[in-house]
Amino acid sequence: MVDLIPIKKLYQYVSLQRQDLPEGRRYIYGEQKLPSVTTVLSATKRDKGALDAWVARVGEAEAERIKNEASLVGTYLHEVIERMVAYRNLPRPTNWEMCKGYELGYKIINTYFHNVNEIWGSEVSLYYPEKYAGTTDLVGVYRGKPAIIDFKQSNKPKKREWIEDYFCQLAAYALAHDKIHGTTIDNAVVLMAVRSDGSTAEFSTAGREFQGYKDLWMRRVDQFHEAQEKTGVCNEQEND
Predict the structure, then answer these.
(1) What is the DSSP string of 152-188?
(2) 172 is in which domain, residue-wise?
(3) Which long-range contacts (CB under 8 A, 24 or more apart) does 96-100 make?
(4) CATH number, domain containing residue 180
């Protein structure tokens, strides 16, 4: 990849250990067990009605099958990009999910990676002390501006107004990167490949709008920790 896109190691990124617990994923940073970005997003989701309605419509077993399949395809999509950036060979596909994930990963690369001017890090662990932690897909320069970049796959095309959580996720990574590495990342990009029709989409946010997502994200972080504290108090009272 360095022959196509400069890989610049401008920052020293730490590798954080992850733990999947009943209450959600946690990242270990020193003595802190920081909730993952996706755990916070899931716990503070404002409208779960659409998801519940979908599960009721298709049935729990079918919903679980669809979610697991999508998760596998997404994993293999990311693997294509991670290995290409790291100059590592891809394993030979052994199932159809791998084939589809590889296809979608290469579709994103072929469609959008000419806009990536620099890569600072791939699969980078980021944390905001005492608040949260997570792993961003890519950080670097996109269309000439420092940016957090995320790769998504979707069963069907999505409208911009449906992806608020994606922008909050990227806002979380930008804030953590700024906090630890002294940057001022003001751009976020979601690159999406769609399974149903083979299309792709680029969604971006910057400036005042992105600041709005950063503010929204931190409110959701505070909401998450307040709920955790209340749960802890209730548990203590029950044990007395």
Answers:
(1) EEESS---GGG-HHHHHHHHHHHHHHHHHH-----EE
(2) 17-239
(3) 97/69, 97/72, 97/73, 98/72, 100/73, 100/76, 100/195
(4) 3.90.320
Task: Give the dihedral of Cα atoms 153, 159, 160, 161; nearest 10 deg.
Answer: -120
Per-residue pLDDT at 235 exceeds 70: no
pLDDT tens, position by position, 95-132: 999 999 999 999 999 999 999 999 999 999 999 999 99
Amino acid at 178: D
Q: Phi, psi (5° rounding) for residue 155?
A: -65, -35
Q: What is the mean pLDDT of residues 31-60?
A: 85
CA nearest neighbour of 187 among 202, 168, 174, 172: 174
DSSP one-letter code for 114: G
Task: List the structure tokens of 176.
Answer: 């953590």
- From residue 1, alpha-carbon distances to 63, 176, 216 in Å are 37, 26, 35
For all residues of the chain together, what is the average pLDDT? 90
Tokens of 216: 């929204």
216 occurs within a structural domain: yes
Closest CA to 5 of 127, 114, 105, 102: 114
Per the structure, the count of domains in the chain is 1
How many angstroms from the chain centroid is the CA of residue 63?
22
Q: Which helix (H) or strand (E) holds 132?
A: strand 132-142
The DSSP bridge partners found for residue 148 are: 139, 188
Q: Considering the chain, what percentage of its residues have pLDDT values greater than 90?
A: 71
Tokens 């009943």 belong to residue:
22
Helix axes 207-239, 164-181, angle to 10 degrees: 90
DSSP category for residue 15: -
Which residues sit opposite 165 in a β-bridge?
A: none
